[in-house]
């Protein structure tokens, strides 16, 4: 099993994944703090540098590309400076952005984090317009979803509740996945699990799973019941990411159903930002490669253990993931 995981880490190369969802620009403003403001009890940050990274659904796409996959991205940005910066970062990452829809009525989602030299966040400022896309922008998104699914081997919906993953877009994605006979993986945000009906797999974190089920999740028995409830309401297989407690998988597509608790692989946690993006990217490539869901989940668990040791939205390479799988086999 472990040898096959190492091999699986390399099999995503060249696989085509379409990613649809809420894209954003992560803007990090780094500086030094050596005094408190005399005007108010807040630190004075002396500017050092700016850094930009792809966030949200774009970070999922970046993870697919970093693992050697071929990715197309569908999302919504504004016709503003942040949108231009986002497009530049997308090109630098080698990601196909022809599916991006530009809406002059909206601001490109940007998260500005003020960070000290020790990677400590002082503040975060969000620039966003999170109402559901409508009108011409919604029509364009649905068209791009249909187009992106053609030739893809997996379709991912990355929902950050910024207006892209609306009922109409979910329906378009489910229809496209069914027509192209490809899996539809969803990283959900809304508490109504039935909203994502038509998905092959849902990957809520444990807080999202608690909202979906209206139950506390503290024990293996509770996480198992939560996964079963989400499956009953959505019809999808379920992978609940559980932080330092690992993951819980319910693969109801097999007979009998596969249920497994995957222990966390992280040795040191620096930042969990974007870990879910890495998980769903690895899952999509694994399933596209023909792997069993349980094996794709085990590989995603290893990948999550790597990225949480890094600051900000991060990626993992196929070589790193292969090494992690080989180390786990020893």
Helix and strand pattern: HEEEHEHEEEHEHEEHHEEEHHH
What quaternary form is this?
single chain
> How is the largest sheet built, in terms of strand order?
5-4-1-8-9-10-11-12-13
Task: Indicate the low-confidence ranges by residue numbers.
Answer: none
The averaged pLDDT comes out at: 93
- What's the N-to-C terminus distance? 12 Å
Radius of gyration: 19 Å
Estimate the global geometry from the Cα principal axes. Answer: globular
Number of strands: 13
What CATH calls the topology is UDP-N-acetylmuramoyl-L-alanine:D-glutamate ligase
- Report the CATH C-level class: Alpha Beta
CATH superfamily: Ribokinase
* Proportion of strand residues: 25-35%
By helix and strand content, what is the structural category?
alpha/beta
Give the helix proportion (percent range): 25-40%
The DSSP helix count reads 10
**How many distinct folded domains?**
1
